[in-house]
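Technical annex, item 7. During the second reporting period the consortium partners agreed on a shared format for inverse folding records so that results from different sites could be compared directly. Each record opens with the tokenized structure and is followed by the designed sequence. A conforming record, contributed by the partner at site C, is shown below for reference.
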């Protein structure tokens, strides 16, 4: 009997009709494993994961494999986006066993949740040096029966090792971690095609944002050029959806041509922020156009009627990765008619194809970012929607929604288009109405139900979103809410050894404390940012003290690999070289349309301390210990 039918997770529901006797993560599954004396097979993935789909139809629909699973194991399915704590702990296990990680994640453990073997995708037959999944199941079954003590000892060893990896570093930092990170990025930078390292290339916006701020405060043209070239290359490449807008998860090649086609809310949120920031630095319209195309995609395809943002769109259509996004020459000609030839020449559409016999539209060869194909884009967009469909993961995740709220708010500040601020306000209102109860907030909302859990990242990202909403509106209700939730986060997640744990309490063998800035910045990095910005906005001593403790802790933790902590280092730079402080003295509501992209802004009523100049709204601007004379206009150099 499959036990997933009443779940709300789209990923779990995808497996509700498997012949595997799946359980969700629950006490019943582990009690049954104990009573029947069976090992637990834990499978972790997410609904838009291509290789999760592959492993499912190759193994979880295979009668011989299913028989082995149902006879010898208790099988548990987890959505990594629903339970990031479980994913974090067992990903560490997987990396310890194999040296790498990924999804689907496959973990074998005892009934008391102690793992003794882990891997990722296993094929149905041995290939590429990987054993078949059936071979793995048979080997585990045999060892469970004949070498149980060895497996249990292995489980004890790995859990003891991971429990003891809690850092014993002091808060002493050797060297300049900011400079070290910048140098590491310089060395890994691909000067020909942009990005860092070799294939696959992930768009890691927080690395680019770190470089931008580093360049700004150090007048370092090289650092800014690295960020610029990367953003331009991604905009030209197939990783960007030229037809419908938005970015795919990552590029499988060095050139940003062939993406892994799934689109994630968090990638697009962070990239909107990065492109908006670059536009604020350069005033180059290509960055603004890219943010607008990406944001409009989110509003068109990834926004619920109630205002919340959906999580992801799948890479696969009709079982084929990328089918939704690729075209043949004949299709282009059929849809566009006489304009088809020019479109094909511009976007590298050829007879033989640029990707597995078909074509991913891109501008890498033509380099023409000034194309005017608005009508053609719309025709192709409508055509591909009718041709095939994408699976939509329609759950609302608080942390990812918070990233998009911040992104829409920042885009509003550079574009001055009200619809983006409206989208941010609607999503924030959705959270308050559906995923919040006073100081308690909740990770997921779907199908009229919310989760009963919340993690550090939920609080950290939502606080950051509220700070950005304040920056765009100067409405104190957002700042007050951010302060309320920050106090709650500090109370719930602070660890006596420094930093913040992911969970308030945990049933797992350790409470994860995520520090590394991977695909998304860690909760600890975002908390550093939150505490710093709240201190700069409110000038309250309690935030300065907490911020400095977090800076000391994270500086020590990041010194072995500084470039892996770029969001934290951005926060550190903002603390050490703060954005300008702008005090607006006004009698009524001031015009805030020309405020700096990143600033600490306060509105006060005109008085003896902040009198009006010429009886008009007056700006008092300070950077560090230097203050400019009061003025009725903001300097463009801010």
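Designed sequence (site C submission):
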């Amino acid at each position: 009997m499959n036990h997933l039918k009443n779940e709300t997770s789209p990923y779990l529901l995808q497996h509700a009709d498997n012949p595997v006797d799946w359980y969700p993560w629950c006490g019943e599954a582990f009690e049954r494993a104990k009573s029947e004396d069976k090992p637990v097979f834990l499978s972790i993935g997410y609904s838009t994961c291509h290789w999760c789909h592959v492993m499912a139809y190759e193994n979880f629909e295979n009668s011989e494999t299913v028989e082995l699973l149902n006879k010898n194991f208790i099988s548990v399915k987890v959505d990594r986006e629903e339970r990031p704590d479980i994913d974090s702990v067992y990903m560490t296990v997987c990396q310890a066993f194999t040296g790498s990680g990924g999804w689907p994640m496959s973990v074998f453990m005892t009934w008391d949740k102690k793992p003794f073997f882990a891997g990722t995708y296993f094929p149905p037959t041995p290939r590429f040096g990987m054993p078949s999944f059936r071979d793995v199941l048979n080997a585990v079954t045999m060892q469970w029966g004949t070498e149980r003590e060895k497996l249990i000892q292995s489980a004890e060893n790995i859990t003891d090792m991971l429990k003891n990896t809690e850092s014993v570093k002091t808060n002493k930092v050797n060297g300049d971690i900011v400079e070290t990170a910048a140098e590491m990025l310089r060395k890994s930078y691909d000067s020909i095609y942009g990005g860092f390292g070799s294939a696959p290339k992930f768009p890691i916006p927080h690395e680019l944002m770190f470089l931008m701020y580093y360049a700004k405060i150090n007048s370092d043209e090289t650092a800014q050029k690295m960020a610029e070239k990367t953003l331009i290359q991604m905009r030209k490449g197939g990783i960007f959806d030229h037809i419908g807008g938005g970015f795919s998860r990552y590029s499988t090649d060095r050139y940003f041509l062939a993406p892994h086609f799934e689109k994630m809310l968090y990638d697009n949120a962070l990239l909107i922020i990065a492109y908006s920031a670059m536009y604020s630095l350069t005033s180059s319209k290509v960055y603004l156009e890219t943010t607008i195309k990406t944001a409009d995609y989110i509003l068109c395809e990834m926004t619920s009627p109630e205002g919340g943002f959906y999580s992801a769109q799948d890479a696969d259509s009709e079982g084929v990765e990328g089918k939704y996004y690729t075209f043949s020459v004949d299709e282009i000609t059929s849809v566009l008619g006489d304009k088809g030839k020019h479109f094909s020449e511009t976007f590298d559409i050829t007879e033989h194809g640029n990707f597995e016999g078909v074509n991913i539209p891109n501008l890498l060869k033509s380099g023409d970012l000034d194309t005017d194909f608005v009508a053609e884009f719309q025709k192709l967009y409508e055509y591909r929607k009718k041709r095939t469909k994408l699976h939509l993961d329609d759950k609302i995740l608080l942390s990812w929604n918070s990233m998009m709220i911040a992104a829409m708010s920042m885009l509003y500040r550079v574009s001055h288009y009200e619809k983006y601020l409206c989208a941010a306000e609607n999503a924030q209102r959705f959270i308050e109405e559906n995923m919040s109860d006073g100081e308690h907030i909740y990770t997921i909302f779907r199908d009229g139900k919310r989760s009963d859990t919340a993690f550090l990242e939920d609080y950290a990202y939502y606080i950051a979103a509220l700070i950005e909403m304040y920056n765009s509106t100067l409405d104190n209700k957002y700042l007050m809410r951010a302060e309320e939730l920050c106090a709650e986060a500090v109370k719930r997640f602070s660890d006596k050894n420094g930093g913040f744990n992911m969970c308030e309490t945990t049933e797992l063998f350790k409470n994860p404390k995520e520090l590394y800035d991977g695909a998304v910045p860690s909760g600890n990095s975002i908390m550093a940012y939150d505490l710093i910005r709240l201190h700069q906005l409110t000038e309250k001593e309690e935030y300065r003290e907490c911020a400095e403790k977090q800076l000391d802790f994270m500086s020590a933790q990041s010194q072995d690999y500084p470039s892996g902590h770029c969001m934290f280092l951005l926060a550190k730079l903002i603390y050490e070289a703060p954005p300008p402080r702008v005090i607006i003295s006004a009698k009524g509501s001031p015009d805030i349309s020309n405020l700096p992209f990143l600033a600490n802004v306060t509105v006060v009523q005109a008085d003896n301390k902040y009198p009006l100049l010429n009886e008009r709204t007056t700006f008092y601007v300070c950077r560090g210990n230097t203050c400019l004379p009061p003025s009725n206009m903001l300097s463009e150099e801010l």
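The chain has four domains: 10-163, 178-315+394-576, 325-387, 581-627. The domain at 178-315+394-576 is CATH 1.50.10.10 (Glycosyltransferase). All partners now use this format for quarterly exchanges.
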